[in-house]
Write a structure and sequence with these properties.
Elements: H1 3-40, E1 45-47, E2 56-58, H2 65-80, H3 87-94, H4 100-120, E3 123-134, E4 139-150, E5 153-169, E6 172-181, H5 188-210
Antiparallel strand pairs: 1-2, 3-4, 4-5, 5-6
């Protein structure tokens, strides 16, 4: 082998070795990025919520509409159908779902309600008619027929809404907002309509006073 060919071959080997090192470094960086993404990626689980026709999904910090609707329906049926015999059971099921900032006040209120309902032997029932999810507020509204009665009081029947906002923490549901009222769901559109009615009534009252 002459010296010229040997030098040419040596330079080619050096070039190929440099390219190989660059490729290996690129692969190492890509592998590191893939490993980082795999470690930090939140796992998403596809489920079929009970009582709902649509499939849902749950991730570490979020859930699908159908999953939240299913939880809202279950909570409304739990809270709306109570008796002196199952009040403690209902309380035990609700408390673990409360975040720290709502825990103390909710437990205090529920304990007082349990005592009152046991003393008066109050029984309630709730038949859901509609489940509404509002995307803008992330709230679930469960609307239906509600009745309450006791041995000393005649049965009271009314339309009632249970309102919830459910967040996810480490794949587990947390009730961050809970309300109930004898009315249709207080969606943003409904609240705006109520405000308009209040303004109209206030205006009419002022006009009546001015006469």
């Amino acid at each position: 082998m002459n010296l010229t060919n040997w030098k040419r071959s040596y330079r080619q080997l050096k070039t190929e070795a440099g390219i190989t090192r660059i490729s290996l470094a690129g692969c190492a960086v890509a592998l590191a990025l893939l490993s980082f993404n795999a470690i930090n990626k939140s796992t998403t689980v596809v489920i079929q919520p009970f009582g709902m026709q649509k499939t849902g999904w749950v991730s570490e910090n979020n859930a699908s509409q159908s999953y939240k609707e299913a939880w809202g329906l279950s909570l409304a049926q739990l809270l709306g159908n109570v008796s002196p015999g199952n009040l403690d059971f209902v309380k035990q099921r609700i408390i673990p779902l409360l975040p720290a900032n709502l825990y103390e006040q909710t437990v205090t209120n529920m304990t007082a309600e349990v005592i009152m309902m046991k003393e008066n032997r109050v029984t309630t029932s709730f038949d859901p008619l509609e489940v509404v999810y509002e995307r803008d507020t992330d709230k679930v509204f469960v609307y239906g027929n509600y009745s309450s009665q006791s041995p000393a009081i005649k049965a009271k029947r009314e339309k009632r809404t249970y309102e919830f906002k459910i967040n996810m923490e480490n794949h587990l549901p947390k009730i961050v907002h809970m309300d109930t009222y004898a009315d249709e769901p207080h969606t943003l559109a409904k609240i705006e309509l109520l405000r308009k009615k209040e303004k109209e009534m206030a205006k009419k009252a002022k006009e009546k006073e001015a006469r």
